[in-house]
Amino acid sequence: MSSSKPLISASNPVVKSSNDIHALAEFTHGLTYEDLDPRIKLQTQRVLRDTLGTVVAGASLPEIQALANQVETLGGPGASTVIGQSTGTSPRFAALVNGTGGVSLELDEGSQFAINHPSIHIMPAAMALAEENGSTGEEFLAALLAGYEVAVRVGRATKLRDAVHPFGTHAIVGAAAACSRLLGMGASQIGESMALAAGLTIASSQTAANAGASVRNLFTGFTNHNAILAVRLVQAGFTGEPEALGSIFGEVLGENYKPGQTGDLGQVFYIERNYFKLYACSRWNHAPIEAAAAIQSSTDFDPNDVEKVTVWTYDPATRLNWQEPVNGYAAKHSIPYNVAVRIVLGSNDLEAYSDDAVADPQVREMAQRVAIKEDPSFTAMLPDVRPARVEIELSSGEKLQETVERPRGGYDRPLSEDELGNKFRRLAEITLPTESVRELEALLPDLHGQTSLELLGRILRRGGEVQADID
Fold first, then answer.
1. Domains detected in the chain
2. What is the mean pLDDT of the chain?
3. What is the pTM assigned to this prediction?
């Protein structure tokens, strides 16, 4: 009987990562919100607003509504809000539902440095626990910010295996940091919570996203759910693996873990270097979309004259090469589809991922003509720049080419405040009455002064009915 070499052995030890956990825990414990630069506070509020907008909009989806309606059997009574439910439930169930809904439309903010979407992996858990714990608005915002910075540092240190989707992975460490801070844990217990949470990651498959399986959206929901579970387990006396970051993200889910990404904690806030989305699809599609749009705006060509399209991009964006997405979820993770729908229909908004758009014969035929190739020089530009080059060859033999290095919405090409506000209103009004959306807009800038999240929860639970109660 043959034996295989163990993944982890004396000759192949786990990367030492306990020093990172210690530094991240000390930062989380010591962060003082009132001493922060006003610029950081404002950006934290923007990130919260953007994330909350996607959660509210996602609550309208049939599967999210069906999951939320299982509140009595899966959640039970509690103080935490599930968007659209009139009664509170347990923090873990609220975090599961809201976390899943918030990522389902693919419009939530993200970080190219973490190669992930930190806020949607953290905010639902932090909000649910803050509601149960009676935390102030300032405590909630501080926890969200601390968790965000932790998540980016762990993400920067991690190179995931090709088969692994980023959602449901290293951001759980940031979520656990936020939750343990809200519970008033000391630095030692915060570190224990982060280590234990790392061990509660799930099987996060890239193929699920490419195939359009909605389990992919649950990756984010369970990150929020399991982060709350992790801190409660630490309170119960359970312990995490001491070198969990190096083990889980350097051996199991990742190919290596590069410790030491913590030296700029408290000096650099990566929440300022995030991106906000304009297009309802994976960020890896955004540069190709804008390059194709730039060609369209500069050259008047008929889509029927397109012979072939070549998209040069970076690794890992080359994973999004499926030409025949089976549904809207899959289309959000297909560069061929996103370029094709831009050329044919001229849009990558929510409507571009409807069943009708995905089934459009002209769009599907165009997607078959789109090839994806890696440009090593683009890969070398990561993580600061996420470029793409699109070449459209017409039947006449003419070649049209455009390169976009920095798609809109990033910190280096920011959206205006009007654009961000309009996006929030457009999304929130999918689920809530206009009056409730106005109440949210008025409340969020002053959330730091609220003695609890009670008013926020009441607006989200009862929609337009809450105004009469407030008055």
1. 18-273 (1.10.4100.10), 283-404 (3.30.1330.120)
2. 94
3. 0.94
